Amino acid sequence: MATPAAPKHNRTDGKDTSAAGLTPCLGGGGVLPRQKLLRFVAGPDGQIYLDLNHELPGMGAYVRPGLSFLEKAISSKALENTLDAKYQGTAADLHAMALKVVEKQLLNRLGLMRKAGQLMTGTDKVLEALYQGKMQCLLVAVDAAANTMKKVTLACENAHAKCLTVCERSLLEGALGKDNCTVIGLSSRANINEVHRLATLWHGLKGLQNKA
Length: 212
Prior knowledge:
Blueprint: E1 22-24, E2 31-33, E3 38-42, E4 48-50, E5 61-63, H1 67-75, H2 78-83, H3 91-115, E6 119-121, H4 123-131, E7 137-141, H5 146-159, E8 162-166, H6 169-176, E9 183-186, H7 189-206
Parallel strand pairs: 7-8
Antiparallel strand pairs: 1-2, 3-4, 3-5, 6-9, 7-9
Helix pairs in contact: 1-3, 3-6, 3-7, 4-5
């Protein structure tokens, strides 16, 4: 049985004030900043929930995003013992659920940025805006052509801008409701930090190295 996403009725204003601290991964993935780890909590119903935004009350259990780390956290009972809760599913269930939740929130965030006018698409337009200092970060679809990836990477290096690879082009186009979403430019610093966090988790869950 797949672990459900965090229930909305459990959310509170009391966020985890130590979210930026270094924490060991229960799946043997080393010690990382908490924002680079998946946080799980035990709900009042005894189930284990993914707390993607690090905002649910109670003790958290932290696991590095990635199937192998989730497998070890489950097989060793570290996840259950830390939360004093039972998990009935498999590591594959947990991994699939986490990837779905992270991907959905990442795409939703980009959709909100489009509506707010903080996002631009189209390789040539985005690169021109980057050279003019209007873009703070560029996203490249993970299935972009190699020459496009190389071109964007070099441009970002020269402009000292962040460059991240994210979801497949078809998913980006569906979320933004427009074509030609291989390269996306972001102009909001506040939202870029959250996009960066979600993209890092997505890469870990997909088992990918950031190409850009």
